[in-house]
Each structure stands twice: as C-alpha cells, then as structure tokens.
Amino acid sequence: MRELTYREALREAMAEEMERDERVFLMGEEVGHYNGAYKVSEGLLDRFGERRVVDTPIAETGFAGVGIGAAMVGLRPIIEFMTWNFSLCAYDQLVNNAAKLRYMSGGQITLPIVFRGPGGAAHQLAAQHSQAVESLYAYVPGLKVVAPSTPADAKSLLKTAIRDDNPVIFIEGEVLYGRKGPIQDEEYQIPLGQGEVKRAGQDVTIIAWSKMVHAALDAATELAKEGIELEVIDPRTLRPLDDRMIFDSVKKTNRCIIVEEGWPFAGLGAEIAYRIMKEGFDYLDAPVVRVTGEDVPMPYAKNLEHEVFPGVEKIARAVRNVLYS
Amino acid sequence: MADTSLSTDKLLDMYRTMQRIRQFESRVRDIFQEGQIPGFVHVSIGEEASATGVAAALTEQDYITSTHRGHGHLIAKGGEVKPMMAELFGKKTGYCKGKGGSMHIANFDLGILGANGIVGAGLPIATGAGLAAKVRGSGEVAACFFGDGASNEGTFHESLNIASSWKLPVIYVCENNLYGEFTAGKDVTSVKDIADRARGHDMPGVVVNGNDVVEVYEATSEAVERARKGEGPTLIECKTYRWEGHVVGEEAFLGKRSYRPADEIEAWKKRCPLITFEQRFMPDTFSQEELDTVQSEVKQAIDDAVQFAQDSPYPQPEEALDDMFSKE
Question: Chain B neighbours among A 104-123 (CB < 8 Å)?
Fold first, then answer.
C-alpha cells in the first residue's frame, strides 16, 4: 500500500495505459510542455514524446472533434479539458457526435475516447469557473459519466474508462487534486457502474460523489458525536448508476439525502430521488431530501460563495430534517 | 477537347458516378414529394462533379466526412444505392438499420465517416482522422466536404488551424453553392472566394470550376499528393450550384417568396456537370450510345434500389434501444 495524491493517481493511470496500449494518447491545452494546467500530466511529455502528449490550440470544439475523429478510425484518445467549464464550447461535439455516432450509424463503430479534466468549484473563481456540469452530460444517452472522490477510485476508474470502447466523461474534483489516499500496489479494476459504501451507518443514507463525499464524511463525523450514524455511499459512476447499492442502503436506513454540488433544477439528484421513490417507496420513513448548490451562478465574494455551496452545515440540517429531530 | 491524361475507363467511371448521383437525387426528390420518404432531404442535383471528382482521387482506404447534403458524397465514395435508399426509407436494410436517415448515413468500411446534420460538425472529425493517419503513418488522407455556410462556423477555422499547424493529411473541400440555406453567401460572408481563407491558415487555397469533374479531380489529386508527402492540408473551393431548394419541399413554407433569381438558376443549369462532361468528351472519347447505355444502366439500378427499399422491412420496435454502447 502506498499513499498517492489524487493528481498522482490520475497520472499513473494515464501512464500505465499509455504504456500498455500505444493507441492511447493525451491531447489538450497545456498538457505537454507546461505539464498540465493542474499538473496532472506532469512528466508525460518527457516520457512519451510529442506524438503521444499533444498540446493543442485553445480551440475546445476543434480538439474535442479531432479526438472524436481519431477515435473513429482506431486511436484511443484522452482529451483533457483544462476545466469542464470550457467543455461547454465543445458541447455540440460531445452531444451530437461523441454520444450519437454509434447509435446513428446502427452500431457500426466503437468510439473509445475519454474526456477528462477538473470540475466543480474551487475557491473564489466565480461563476464561469465554478460549476458542476455532471448533470449536463449524464442527461445525454450515449455518454458514460464518472466522478471519483478518492485517489484509489480515480486511478482505477480512469484506467477502466480508457479501456472502455465508448465515450466516457471523466470529471475530476478540482479541489481534490492534492488530497492523499492509499493505493494498492497491484493492479485492481473497478468497473463503471459500481459504487462503494464509504462509511457504513444505520440512521440515514447520504448519496454523494466527487468532493461532496468528503463533506458528507465530515458531516458523519460530526453527527456521530450526537449518536447519529450516517451511511455515506458514493456511486462513483453517475451513468450507469449503481441503483442496487442505493436501494440496498435506503432499505436499511429508510431515510435518504442526496448531496450534489450542482444546481437543483433538473439536477442528477432529482433523477436519483425519483428512482428511490419508484423502487423504494414503502421503505421510506421520510421524503428524500436534496442538498444542492443554490439556484444562482456562483458568486465571487468569499462569504457569498460559502452561502451558496452545499457544505457540512447544510448536510447536518438536512439530516435533522429527515430524522424529524 | 479531351485534353486529359485520364484513362477512358476512369472517365467513364466518373460519368457513371455522376449519373448515379443525379438519378438517385432526382428520384429521392420525386418520391419524397409523393410522401414515400419522411423527414428532411437535401439533394445535390447540380453538384455531382465536386463529389465525384474528389472521391475519384481517393483510395478506398481514405476517409471522407460529409454533410446534410451528403448522398452524392457517399455514392461517390462507393456507397451502394440500395442500402442508401433503404436508409432514407427508414428500413432495417439501410446502412444504419434505419437509425440514421438522410442526414446521418455512414459506412465505415468504405471510409465514410458519416454525413452530419450539424453544419460544420464534420470538419474536426476529418481533421482527427487525418491526425490518426499521420500518427500511425498509415498513409490515408481525409477529404472533408462542407458548404460555404460551414466556412463561417468556428469549427472551420479551428480545424484548418489545427491541420495546418500539424501538417495533417486533410483535403478541405468547400462546395460553394452560393447559398447557406435561404441566405445568399455574399450577404453574410467576408470574402468572395472561400479559398482566400486558406491564406489565413497558411495553406494552399484553390478555386476550381466545381461543375467540371476533371478539374475537380486534378485539383484534388494534387492536394492528395501533397497530403501523402506530409506537406499538409489544402483548401479546395468548388464553385457550384444546387438546382433544387435547400430542402425538398421548401416551397411549402417559402410561399411566393423567392430567394434566388430565376435567371441565375437557368444560367447554372446550362453549366450542368453532366452536360459539361458530354460536351468535352463526346463524340471524340465516348459515343452518344456509350453514355446513353450508362444512363439506362443507372436508371435500372435506381429502380431496383427503390424497389428494394419499398420491399424491405422496418426495424422491429425493440431495436430502438439497441446499438447504444459497445460491449467490451
């Protein structure tokens, strides 16, 4: 067992897969000579050369589409968006080409491509640089969406995503890059669509992913002092979703809170809440509650940002709410 | 008149392809109006020479990307008219099993990376296929068809910039038919010749008579040669014209308004790609009889294709949920 940062884990995943399969290459803004805007790709250019680690112009639609074209004819690109905010420039390529080409062609092609980069708010970067886009992508049939919370999950899931023959949206937590965690030395594989119980408990189920897992775990530590035991479950993959794990947990606790950084309206939590209602209605002792970002663009001032963000206090309040305490 | 080094076989092949496109498109127009084909269809009558001349300069391994007006490109790259027609009918025997339709036909075995219903969306795909060819050193080139309208999209500039910066083996083929949907290009475009935009991306830009299949073929061959030698992309602008509307049946929503002068349409019909070919190669290279034979063989093939499409089954309803993901 070693300790690695989330950033290092992602880097190892890419390096190992590039070593394993020469069709895999990394392309994006600043991934090569600058070693990556968030240093995820540090050292990869030196190790694999310019053919495999490709600096692009600032042209998100262009290089996203170039990746799709390369994948269509046999390569396995990893496309890095400097942040997922900028992927919105390329939304047409992801939604109209990546997600649909296989289906529209009657299943003629495989499209092995990973789009990855940091998502969610960091600190005081304001509205255009602080948003959680997973709902925008999970909405689209034809895309798989992954949002890991720990270094171990990040490493394995990125490797799985690279080996997948379909387009995968891989959203890293921007504030998680420096977070350390244990990683086992031998090869291990987490399939897409398999979640994990991050903390077992019997009172309330908390569903969270990416950095919100850590807020949920912090809330669990706090509430344990009052004798309330939260079960924190992390789907890790948002599409396909591990329904089984969610239903099993809700059947046990009979109460559920979904924590997500994104906006409330038509967000992923709404879909998850619907599924719980549909499959687990008789097991619920309280309505499912969602803790989300507020329904506004992210403000800049520190206190306003704190107000809008769905942190530990809001989770604790929601827990008391579903426990009627 | 027959001042070309092309063999008579090659010339006759190109004529046959143009006939195939003309007759396929004419029949599609007619049966759409009879209500046999659903959706939107965009036909390329009058633009047969650009599709044919470009594809004739490619090998089977080379790639093309196409547009919403793509039937001609696919036929020129080797698409069979039966599965194409069946796809337009939404039948299971279509190239995409009835899931793509007119604007999304693809056949990857033939290097056809798909028509595309989003204007300009094929440009980065062709550029990516070019990147893959270069990275692998496998020698293919990618030809990218798009219209004058798409040359105002960001994808056009992003793709040309990337291909030129990295010297990718891509041939950008702008079929300038003077109108982007219902708007005259001259009203919304900063340049008279789209080929001038090549200069901004430091690549050769060539204007050709897009209705002369030999001229298109020769310009494309030169561009393909450059591309295969690693000298990078070329932008070829084919000046051409679509005889029909942007979309078949547009009269229904245009009403009495017209966006194209009648004399302009008539003048371009005189420059028909088929007539241009016939005037150049008949009777010295081909007799009237030879070309008539091609025409009637093609007519039979189109009749058969329509019959095939009509007789083919629709997909089963449950197939709507298939073909989403590849299972490793």
Answer: 104-111
The 3-state DSSP class for residue B270 equals coil
CA atoms within 13 A on the CB side of A50: 5
Say what the pLDDT of residue B1 is.
43
Would you say residue B324 lies in a domain? no
What's this model's pTM, rounded to 2 decimal places? 0.95
Number of domains in chain B: 1
Number of residues written out for chain A: 325
Q: How far is residue B56's CA from residue A184's CA, in Å, rounded to a whole number?
A: 56
Q: Which of A21, A73, A102, A169 to mutate to test the interface with B (most CBs of B within 10 A)?
A: A73
Contact B114 A105 (CB under 8 A): yes
Please give the residue range of the domain that contains residue B52. 8-314
Enter the ipTM.
0.94
- Say if residues A245 and A235 touch (Cβ distance below 8 Å): yes
pLDDT by position in tens, chain B (length 328): 446 789 999 999 999 999 999 999 999 999 999 999 999 999 999 999 999 999 999 999 999 999 999 999 999 999 999 999 999 999 999 999 999 999 999 999 999 999 999 999 999 999 999 999 999 999 999 999 999 999 999 999 999 999 999 999 999 999 999 999 999 999 999 999 999 999 999 999 999 999 999 999 999 999 999 999 999 999 999 999 999 999 999 988 888 788 999 999 999 999 999 999 999 999 999 999 999 999 999 999 999 999 999 999 999 999 999 999 998 5
**Quick count: other Cβ atoms within 10 Å of Cβ B30?**
13
| Percent composition of chain A: helix, strand, coil (DSSP 3-state, to 5) | 40, 20, 40
**Residue A113 Cα, gap to closest chain B Cα (Å):** 12
Q: Is residue B326 part of a domain?
A: no
Active site residue A129: yes
Distance, CA of B194 to CA of B173 (rounded, Å): 10
Query: Which residues, listed in sequence order, are joined to residue A231 by a DSSP beta bridge?
Result: A205
Residues of A in contact with B327 (CB under 8 A): 165
* Residue A103 near residue A67, CB atoms below 8 Å: no
**What is the length of chain B?**
328
Beta bridge partners of B236: B173, B206
Which DSSP letter does residue A76 get? E
B3 part of a folded domain: no
To 5 degrees, how large is the angle CA A95–CA A96–CA A102? 100
- Quick check: helix, strand or coil at residue A123? coil
Residue B212 maps to a domain: yes
Cβ contact, residue pair A141, B324, below 8 Å: yes
Count of pairs with CB atoms under 8 A, one residue in A, one in B: 148
How far is the C-alpha of B155 from the C-alpha of A97, rounded, in Å?
Answer: 13
Is B137 exposed, middle or buried (CB count within 10 Å of its CB: 0-12, 13-18, 19+)? exposed
CATH number for B281 = 3.40.50.970
